[in-house]
Amino acid sequence: MGCPKILVVGGGAGGLELATRLGRSLGKSKKAEIHLIDSSNTHLWKPLLHEIAAGSLDTGTHALSYRAQAHNHHFQFHLGRMQQLDQANKRITLEPLLDEEGRTILGQRSLEYDYLVLAVGSQTNDFNTLGARDYCYFLDSTDQAERFHQHLLNRFLHANSQQAPESGPRLTIGIVGGGATGVELAAELYQASEQLAAFGLTNLSPESIKVVLIEASDRILPHLPERISTSAKDELSRLGVEVKTHTRIAEVLSAGFLTAEEEFIRCDMMVWAAGVKAPKFLSEIGLPTNRIQQVEVDQSLRVQGQERIFALGDCAACPQPDGRFVPPRAQAAHQQASTLFKSLKRLINNAEEQPLPFVYHDHGSLVSLSRYSALGNLMGNLSSGSMTVEGKLARLMYISLYRMHLRALHGFWRTLLITLSERMHRSVKPRLKLH
């Protein structure tokens, strides 16, 4: 009888960290076969997508090859998208893989499992708003961020060639959603606009670009303390961002947003960054899901009613002892990957063992305002309260979160080399990606 097979579906922060750690341990020692499935060939830390979109970060520098990671850390990688789940035979089916012209590269494939982990993350929730999918950009993947960036460059070029209007900006970008993604993207766009004149677009300046940030609730960053929300709004306003709260979008049109109060907000480009939901297929494969399509799991991350299927990260609705659910954050996925790694090792060594309960530890949240600043709160779950950090210290802490993710994937020394390589890359490359 062969060794047990563990399938991890989804190569985001949690899924890739889990597959890497299982590969280093169980895969290397031949105690289990570890398989990772993802629909992309490369991994990019999702909190970096707004920088890809604005052009302040180059995908090629930060993208990680799943196949190289699999080779280096003793697991197998499969390119594909999960389509079906056969619980009786412990098998999943992957969709056919097609090229850009619709021709079949790989047909429908099946993979058997002894343990299955769903780690497919989340996507933006447009709440079925009319026109949102037709006219808005979404930033759920590297491809979407790069598509936005290419369109942004085209808009910059067009605006630079036009005669200056008598009043108002040359280019208006509307962002729906005042959470971390919307706030960070707004700041990053202004950082990008400051570089344009240096690269020949001399008719453009930060004053030529207008960003409108639209939030339905009474303040931006509603899940963070009010002081942080106020500081972020003040900083964005200083940059020139128009922040509109208490504003719900009723419909998206080709030329802008129509609000519930029937106000029209004209925009040249529109981004939807409000709300999250899990991928739709999760609600179609026979597992219990909630209203936003997250798989319902118990506190050990095991899917309700299942013995050998687990879920982690944004796609899992995981209850905590206080009755609340784990929030969809990168730090939560990282912590869940660590807990599930220990649980699966226990189960592989002794099937009679029980998986460990997961307890979420909120270490606070940080929001980056490009190179201008950062702010957030630390140790958010301590009874003594949280500590607010701003400025350069918060910026360094924000950057360190990415370094922690790299260390989980590569170890200390490789992460150090990657960091040095990135710094050398920045010293010879333009600060704004222009292609």
Question: What would you note in describing this structure?
Answer:
- With 435 residues, the chain is an alpha/beta fold.
- The chain is built from eleven helices and 26 strands.
- The strands form nine sheets. The protein has a five-stranded parallel beta sheet with strand order 5-2-1-11-22. A four-stranded parallel beta sheet has the order 15-14-13-19.
- The N and C termini lie far apart (53 Å).
- Summarize model confidence as the mean pLDDT: 88
The value of Rg in angstroms is: 22 Å
Low-confidence stretches: 379-385
Please outline the major beta sheet.
5 strands, parallel
Beta-strand content bin: 15-25%
Number of strands: 26
User: Share of helix among residues?
Assistant: 25-40%
Q: What is the count of helical runs?
A: 11
Structural class: alpha/beta
Q: Overall 3D geometry? A: globular
| CA(first)-CA(last) distance | 53 Å
Spatial sequence of strands, sheet with the most strands: 5-2-1-11-22
Counting copies of identical and different chains, the oligomeric state is single chain
